[in-house]
Structure formats: C-alpha cells, structure tokens
From TrEMBL:
Compositionally biased intervals (Basic and acidic residues): 374-388
Annotated protein name in UniProt: GTPase
Gene3D superfamilies: P-loop containing nucleotide triphosphate hydrolases (3.40.50.300)
Annotated spans, Disordered: 370-399
Cited SUPFAM superfamilies: P-loop containing nucleoside triphosphate hydrolases
The G domain, residue ranges: 55-202
Keywords for this protein: Membrane, Transmembrane, Transmembrane helix
Biological process, per Gene Ontology: ribosomal small subunit assembly
Presence of keyword Flavoprotein: no
Pfam family, one: MMR_HSR1
MF GO annotations: GTP binding; ribosomal small subunit binding; rRNA binding
Chain ranges passing through the membrane: 465-489, 509-532
GO cellular component: cytosol
Length: 586
C-alpha cells in the first residue's frame, strides 16, 4: 500500500479495533465481529503488495461482465457462453508487475502457489487460483486492441492492475455466491456490471450496494448492453439507476454506459480504471471506506445519547441505604448502650456497681466489642483471616434485601439515563455484578470499623475518684458514729465529737459523703446520655463511610468503569470515522 496513505489509515484502524474491543459484550456480536474482521483483513492487506491494485468485476447472471473483462484485457480469457453460470471461479489478469513474483507471462496457475510477494502473494490471500500475466499490448481475437495496456498515450496505462472476473452474485451455486461475497469485501476497487433488464436486481441492491454507502470513491458502475437501448430509453434507465444508487448513499458513484459488443464507453472505462491504478491509493481508500462503514455500523448499533454517570450525591445515598439494610441503626444503638453500661460501671455509686456486671454489653452480643476486649483466641483467628471478622447482627430480612437491591438498581439506572438501551443495560449489569458479595462485604465492613467503643471519657476517672472519696467520707462518718454509739452503750467515757456550726462532725461526714455520691451519680446521667449520643453519631458516620466505601468498590466503581468504557468507545469510534472527537460530560 502507498506509504503516504498508511499513516493516515493506521490510526483509524487502531481506533476501530479499540472500539470493537470496547463494544464486545455490549453491542450485537455480528456488528462487533464485522469490525474485527475489517481490522484483521486490513492488517493482512497492508502486509501485501503496494504496487498492485485489485479491481473486481461483479454482476448478476447475464450482465456481460465476462465479456467486458475480455474486452478490457484484449484477450478471450474469461469464458463466455449461453449456459449459466459461465464463471465458476475467480479469474485474474495481472498487468506488468509480475515477473519474479511467482507469475509468468500469460501463464495460468491452477494451484494458487507462487514464490515471493507481489501479485502472487496478494492473489494467494484473495484465494484466486487462475491467473494470467499480461506484459504486452493485448489484441482480441477479432483484431481489436484491449482497452488497458502499457504506456498508452490515451492515459490508459494499467501497469500494476489486477483485474478479477468473479462468479455471478446470483449464482445458483452457493459456493460461487460465497466466493463473490468474500471478495467483495477484499478487493480494492468494486466495478458493478448491470444490464438494462436486471439493473434493479434485488440481490445486487439488498445484499451488496445497500451496504456500500461509504465506498463511493472506490466504486464504479457500468451499465452494459446499452447498444440494445434507444437514446431515450438509455437516459431513462441511467436516471433510474442513479436514483437507486443515491438511495444507497452512492450518489457520487461514476455510472458509465458501455457495450462489450460494440466497444462503446470502454475507452472511458479504461481511463477511469487506469487513473485509479496510477494513484496507488485505491487499497487505502477501500480500507478507509471499510473502516468508515464498520464504524457506522457500530454507531448505529450503539444508538444516540450518552449516560448521565454517577451523580455527586448518588454514592453517599447508596452508602446510607446499605448502612440501614446492613443493620447500622442497631449497631449505633448498641454503641450507645455499651457506652452507657461502661459509664455506669465507672461513675455510679461504688456500692451498687456490682449490679451492672449482670448486664451484657450490647456490642459483645453483636461481636463488635473492641479488639482489645475480645478473647485472645478470637483475636488470633481474625488476625489469620480477616474474613472471619463478622458480626452477629440479625439475618437480613426480605425487606432489607429488597432495599439494597432497589438502591443498587436506582443508582445504576440513574447512571445509565440518557444512554441507548445496549449501554444502559450494560451499566445496569455492571451495577449488579457483585450483588451476591454485597451483604457479606457490608457485614465485614461493619465488623472492621473502629467504633471507638473501647475508650471512655475524660470525666470518668474524675467522677470515679470523687465517688470513692465520697464513699470513704461516708464510711469514716458512719464508723465514727458507730464507735460513739458502741462506747455509749458500753458506758465508756469518750470526749464529745467535734462540731461544725453546731453539727457533729461524724454526722456531717456521713451525710455529706452520701449526698455527694448521690449528686455525682445524678450528674453522670446527663453527661452519659450526651456522650453516648455523640458516640452514636460518630459511630454512624464511620459506619456509613465504611458502607459507602463498600458501595463504591462493588457498585459505583463498576458502574463508573462502564460509563468510562462508553466514552472511550465513543471517542475511538469518532477517531475511526475520521471526525473530531466531541467531549461530552464525564
């Protein structure tokens, strides 16, 4: 292929391959496979001869393409007969560049072999076994010269041309139709030969021309047998044919009236083909047209619109939903209850503290007690396998599971809003990809969250010391009074107890110690409630952060990855199509 064309084509081929890879599993398999096939075929064609241009003659039964082939080559190479089909396998005529490349002048090769690269390797790739090398100005058997030669002054020098005569597109032999369909996707230039009676053939238009809208630059249409038409009928048929081609996006295709019998129009056909060959760019143009066509197929399958993506508040909303369904409210209540229990053990009247030892710690029941307070055996097991760190929260109810499922579906649906159904469905699948892992991951995240439950408040030791001092004061006062009472009962003379403002000191110590203990206990109640509520809010915040992280990892990140995949696909498609990349919202 022409070196000047390869750099421009290579990025588009790479982009088409990238788009096909990104579309795999999202868009219809046949569309993706078609793009992959073009990338693969283009790579193979680029590795073959850049000096040859392959022109294929395609047509329905009776269109006269073999007669045109013979007229252009100047030799009766193609079989022409009344029986159908006349062409059962492809036939190649190679102009000029063939010596030393596995082809000999005017030699027919039936085994498809040939040493070296060039024409032989190219024809091997095309699967064309019958080949003729033409390296002199040919003359037909009736004495007329061929319309393609070497160094002709009329501009029809065809050096480097490979002309193919192909089986009928409507052949009754299925193998012939398959050969024609395959080569229609591989030749560099497509020449469609039609006749006045079958120019509107359904097979031609539905199976071939309708899919060639981007190939106008490498397409030529020949209306053969015009010698059978009057001037008026010729104009009518040509106008009708051009309208039909325009309907396929081929309005710019060159349509030439010709006659293989009289030679009318063949000089122009020779010039047109020779001009294409001389440019050495037909192969690149054909591949570029294939890339554009497959990119258009991918674009049509992808549809219009683009996904909205994950909104700024969607991630946090999902985290809150997962937290509620995962039992975070129960954990928060347990954190508050655990703090109140530990606070009571530290700040209540020391004489009654033993009563709190009969109450179970709510966090211990949920297996959420601080690690330092857990039994050593449990700590060792968790250290060996963090997955064992699970809570004992009640099993999720059907309602809770429905809440989680609904939250995931809502986020994925919102992220895919605006996209076409194939991509919206892919985004929804991405959101549900880890649905089975979600409950366990939420439970582990809750179990692994530092709830701050093992730490007391700064005022706990203060009130604890004061409570013990108050109790000690009351005990001293009670003991003093007891000694005085016992001495009086036993009639032991003792000095009177000291007084303060007329009140005996032992009595003041007893009453004051008891009163101080009660006041300290009453003071601890609101302090405990306020602090427990604060600890609960902090635990809720940390737990929601943990469940949000789980939601991000198992739901949001896959959804975002799918949205990013869409944008990468769209960008690759734009580069493959050769249009500027539009940057939408991300």
């Amino acid at each position: 292929m022409s070196r000047r064309d390869t750099p421009a084509l290579a990025p588009r081929l790479d982009a088409l391959g990238e788009a096909a890879e990104l579309a795999a599993g999202r868009l219809p398999e046949d569309v993706v496979a078609g793009a992959d096939a073009v990338v693969r075929a283009a790579g193979e064609r680029q590795a073959l001869s850049a000096e040859h241009t392959v022109v294929g003659f395609f047509g329905a039964t009776g269109s006269g393409k073999s007669s045109l082939f013979n007229a252009l080559t100047g030799r009766d190479l193609a079989r022409v007969a009344a029986t159908r089909p006349t062409t059962s396998e492809p036939l190649a005529a190679v102009w000029g560049v063939g010596r030393g490349q596995g082809l000999d002048p005017d030699a027919e090769h039936g085994d498809g072999t040939g040493e070296g690269g060039g024409a032989a390797a190219l024809l091997d790739w095309l699967g064309v076994r019958r080949r003729h090398l033409l390296d002199e100005a040919p003359v037909l058997d009736d004495g007329r010269p061929g319309f393609l030669g070497f160094g002709r002054r009329d501009g029809a020098d065809a050096t480097g041309l490979i002309l193919l005569d192909l089986p009928d597109i409507d052949s009754v032999e299925r193998g012939n139709r398959e050969i024609t369909s395959r080569l229609a996707g591989h030749v560099d230039v497509l020449v469609w030969v039609v006749d006045p009676e079958k120019y509107a053939d359904a097979v031609l238009h539905r199976e071939f021309l309708a899919t060639m809208g981007s190939h106008a630059a490498v397409t030529l249409v020949l209306l053969n047998q015009v010698d059978r038409l009057s001037v008026r009928d010729r104009d009518v048929v040509l106008a009708s044919l051009r309208r039909m081609l325009s309907g396929h996006g081929l309005g710019d295709v060159r349509v030439l009236p010709v006659s293989a019998r009289t030679g009318e129009g063949l000089e122009e056909v020779g010039r047109q083909v020779a001009a294409i060959v001389a440019q050495r760019g037909a192969a690149a143009e054909r591949l570029g047209a294939d890339v554009a066509a497959r990119a258009a197929d991918l674009a049509a399958a992808s549809g219009e619109g683009e996904p909205a993506g994950v909104g700024p508040g969607d991630e946090q909303r999902l985290g809150r939903e997962l937290a509620v369904a995962g039992g975070v409210p129960a954990v928060v209540r347990a954190v508050e209850g655990s703090y109140r229990l530990r606070s009571a053990k530290r700040t209540s009247w020391p004489v009654l503290r033993w009563m709190h030892s009969f109450r179970a710690d709510p966090l211990r029941r949920l297996h959420l007690m601080p690690e330092s307070a857990a039994p050593r055996r449990d700590r060792d097991e968790v250290a060996r396998d963090p997955a064992l760190h699970r809570t004992s929260l009640p099993e999720r109810s059907g309602t809770q599971r429905a809440v989680v499922d609904g939250a995931v579906r809502t986020l994925a649906a919102a992220a895919g809003a605006g996209a076409s159904e194939p991509w919206a469905a892919a985004i929804r699948r991405a959101g549900r990809e880890h649905a089975e892992e979600l409950p366990g991951a939420v439970d582990q995240a809750i179990a692994a969250t530092d709830l701050g439950a093992g730490r007391g408040s700064w005022w706990h030791p203060v009130l604890d010391v004061l409570q013990w001092l108050a109790l000690l004061t009351a005990v001293v006062g009670a003991g003093w009074l007891g000694v005085l009472a016992l001495a009086g009962y036993l009639q032991f003379p003792l000095p009177p107890a000291p007084t303060v403002e007329g009140f005996p000191l032992p009595t003041l110590l007893l009453v004051g110690g008891l009163a101080l203990g009660v006041l300290l206990a009453l003071l601890a109640i609101p302090l405990t409630r306020w602090t427990a509520a604060a600890r609960g809010r902090r635990a809720r915040r940390r737990l929601e952060e943990a469940t949000t992280d789980v939601g991000r990892r198992l739901v949001v990140d896959p959804v975002r990855a799918e949205v990013d995949r869409f944008h990468a696909f769209r960008d690759a498609l734009a580069r493959a199509s050769g249009v500027p990349v539009r940057r939408g919202r991300r």
